[in-house]
Amino acid sequence: xxxxxxxxxxxAAKPILEKINQAGYEAYFVxxxxxxxxxxxxxxxxxxxxxxxxxxIKQIFDKxxxxxxxxxxxxxxxxxxxxEITTFRTESTYTDFRRPDSVTFVRSLEEDLKxxxxxxxxxxxxxxxxxxxxxxxxxxxxKKQIRAVGDAKxxxxxxxxxxxxxxxxxxxxxxxxxxxxxxxxxxxxxxxEKIAVERIQVEFEKMLMGQAAGQALLTMVEVDLLPYLPGxxxxxxxxxxxxxxxxxxxxxxxxxAQVWTLYLATIVRPAVDxxxxxxxxxxxxxxxxxVGRLAPAIQKxxxxxxxxxxxxxxxxxxxxxxxxxxxxxxxxxRHIEELFFxxxxxxxxxxxxxxxxxxxxxxxxxxxxxxKQLSAIELAVVEGRLENExxxxxxxxKEQ
Length: 400
Ligand SMILES: Nc1ccn([C@@H]2O[C@H](COP(=O)(O)OP(=O)(O)OP(=O)(O)O)[C@@H](O)[C@H]2O)c(=O)n1
Ligand SMILES: [Mg+2]
Known about the structure:
- Its EC number is 2.7.7.72.
- This protein is 49% helix and 10% strand.
- The chain is an alpha+beta fold.
- Helix 7 (161-173) runs antiparallel to helix 10 and helix 12 (256-264) packs across helix 14.
């Protein structure tokens, strides 16, 4: 396969390949950028692999930064862009299922591509636009399948995160996972326990946002992955994954807040500890707060009051998006939307009267009682029993 025209990011980086070639070494675009170009998708990062050793790359270019020199990566700065160039390498034994004990630089492209995860991630593209496809990745793109390069068990033993990546790419591209690769996934799933939660989290999020997220969840159930993921076994069950899978067929979450609200706030079990689950996934404070606030609202979506809606009004979009994925009726969604839309105030700051004004008017004194008075005003205004207007509020306080 040959490309006469390259995407703009690769056109911009092509002089780098040419300069390395002129110095007598090989250089190729590799990894996700080649896969995404062939698929006609947007590229996000441009990775370059070369037969030149890091020291040799540094001699070829004026401006370089040692971003990961022990792994063979040097960053070349060119027209305000930074390009990571990684020396062809093989990785020797993996004792911890995550990082190679050492990397060995090699001069052969094939040796480098052989240690990559999937055939569709193991293309190389040269400066002339020629695709090098040593493992029939093009055939797998055609078949729409994720297949490990060489022996799947070896690839997953080298880096257990690759099992999550398999699910992520299957979901993102709506591909199936090839049989041997799936068998290896099932056999080696326990190794995922050794992977840092943060890395699993990122792949899991991307998986749930992919177009075939429902199918990916079914696959997770099929290979029994759940016990090896972060989180509490007693909290999320395979039944829960199946429930989510059935709702993710047509619509997927569009943000991280939606992902985690969908995944965790939908579990209707009074005894479980949501905070514990959130912590075991090491989610950001912001996501934890969002899920914590939306969980009760999701569970009583059929009977939300205006006060409930007022308390989550900055999360309205997330709530509605998640309820939509969960197939709540359009009538109910419209009703909740209207509640949001018709809120008399958005926050306590919108009240026509503040504490200082109540004190000045002789209707309150500083202290805990003042807080209670303001809360009563806020509730009455939100519930539409009290007009948000100074005189009305003063009268309301006098009557209390
Ligand atoms: N666990 C991993 C991670 C990466 N790679 C290889 O390194 C390339 C770049 O990795 P990365 O940027 O993490 O993934 P991409 O495939 O580029 O996907 P994305 O679109 O998310 O960047 C991959 O294509 C693959 O060849 C691998 O073999 N095993
Ligand atoms: Mg990438």
